[in-house]
Amino acid sequence: AEGKSLIDFSIVTLVRAVKSIDDKKKVIEEIFPLINMLKTKVEQSHYLKRLSDELAVSESDVRAEFLKRAQKGKKADPLIDPPAIEKREPLPEDEEIIASLLLQGNLDPSALTGQLILNDFVHPQISRLLSNFWNEEKGEWRNAVGLDAIRGMALFSHLSVRRNDYEDIGRVAQDCIFSMKVKRVRREGDEIQKLLKLAERKGDIPLLMSLQKTFLELKRELGRLTLSR
């Protein structure tokens, strides 16, 4: 809810200062990352339409631009292109462990519900693979569906046989979840800082004050996460 109210506020205040096409581009650059953090396509679709209405830009153009940017880091199709593991691209350890525990049946997907969302997995091929465990409509994790189509992926094979001989798998999973939640808060903080710089350039004092408040709330959330360990 906090994320959505931030988008509402950002759209209204940033659009208010739009005077040119370049200004519209800047608004899109600031709002798209926030929309991308939302849990479901339904929520994303709502705000893409809202953004197109506020900017008086074709909805189809806004959606096309959003999809283009979302796919920028996910160009390689794991079904036809050499997977990340073959290119020796490093896998984030926390994401790798969670994905392998899910594939090996050592972690119930429901344990992630309310803790992580699909967008918390930033490695494009891990995210693609785990989309089979993610119920988009309900915003919750479930038992995998449609895995047969990706069983040939080198990454799938790697994660399926990865050694996870931990003494306490539950604790390891919790540590990974904690690590990913901290990264999410830091990413959100980075986005707020970008909006802060934009607000400073425009001299928008009300927006500055609101963003500073949100930034402090994120810092407190990070503190709470740290103290909970």
How would you describe this structure to a colleague?
With 229 residues, the protein is mostly helical. 62% of the residues lie in helices and 2% in strands. The chain has a two-stranded antiparallel ribbon. Helix 1 packs parallel to helix 3 and helix 5 packs across helix 7. The longest helix is centred in the last third of the chain and has 34 residues. The two termini are 25 Å apart. About 6% of the residues have low confidence.
Number of DSSP helical runs: 9
Number of strands: 2
- N- to C-terminal separation? 25 Å
Biggest sheet strand order reads 1-2
Catalogue the unreliable spans: 75-88
Helix content: 55-70%
Quick overview of this protein structure:
The protein has 9 helices and 2 strands, in the order H-H-H-H-H-H-E-E-H-H-H. The chain is an all-alpha fold. The chain is globular, with a radius of gyration of 19 Å.
What is the topological layout?
Layout: H1 2-16, H2 21-36, H3 41-55, H4 59-70, H5 93-103, H6 124-130, E1 134-135, E2 140-141, H7 154-161, H8 169-202, H9 205-227
Antiparallel strand pairs: 1-2
Helix pairs in contact: 1-2, 1-3, 2-3, 3-4, 5-7, 5-8, 8-9
Core attributes:
62% helix, mainly alpha, 229 residues, two-stranded antiparallel ribbon, 9 helices, 2 strands, single chain
